[in-house]
């Protein structure tokens, strides 16, 4: 599913970034180019929430092993 139509960012892109350690809002904005012209910025909150879920999921799966 697309999270950002302006930049063509998918949910899997966001989850991968979170699992890779890109979790701070400034890191996410830089990684996905959300500060560049042509980005409306409406997706920033959703992207941050998806990353938090991905990180929580990664932590949970590590603990369960």
TrEMBL record:
Pfam families, A to Z: Fer2_BFD
Boundaries of every BFD-like [2Fe-2S]-binding domain copy: 2-52
InterPro entries, sorted: BFD-like_2Fe2S-bd_dom, BFD-like_2Fe2S-bd_dom_sf
Name the record gives this protein: (2Fe-2S)-binding protein
Organism: Candidatus Nitrospira kreftii
Lineage: Bacteria, Pseudomonadati, Nitrospirota, Nitrospiria, Nitrospirales
């Amino acid at each position: 599913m697309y999270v950002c139509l302006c930049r063509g960012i998918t949910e899997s892109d966001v989850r991968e970034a979170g699992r890779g350690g890109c979790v701070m809002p400034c890191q996410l904005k830089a990684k996905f180019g959300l500060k560049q012209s042509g980005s409306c910025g409406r997706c920033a909150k959703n992207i941050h929430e998806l990353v938090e879920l991905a990180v929580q999921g990664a932590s949970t799966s590590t603990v369960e092993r």
